[in-house]
Amino acid sequence: MEIGIIIQAVGNVIFTIVAFLLFLRTHLNCRKLKTPSPFPQTFKFKIFVAAIIISDVMILVRAVYRVMELHQGWKGKLITTEWYFYVFDTMPMIVCMAVWILGQPGWMLGVELANAHFRLKGKDAEKETTPPMEEIELNGNEAQLHIGL
Predict the structure, then answer these.
(1) pLDDT higher for 7 or 102?
(2) I need a labelling partner for 137 at 20 to 30 A (CA). Which of 35, 86, 129, 147 fits?
């Protein structure tokens, strides 16, 4: 059981490093090329990014606690002391869930994704970059998605 939580924590750390490198390299390249950042500069997008960071940190706090707890065994101090469980296991998960009430991607990214214009390089740059709108038809209880190509 301990190894599973360690694997989860390692995966979470890898995600954190990759996300940070993406942000850092994009920021440095945009500064060097004197181009605007491809990330939306809206307040809603910043809330969304904050939700990712807060939930990521809370998951890491919980993973570290669980590894230490299981390493001590079933009679260890962490597993037998109730307030540790509430502070380092329950509270991070409540915070993790609560931030997504405020940072819900549909609310935070709806406008940004609908208005996104992605830059192409080379011969494909001359083609239209905005995909056609999608239409949803409701037939009874089934929704059919039609994509214009």
Answers:
(1) 7
(2) 129
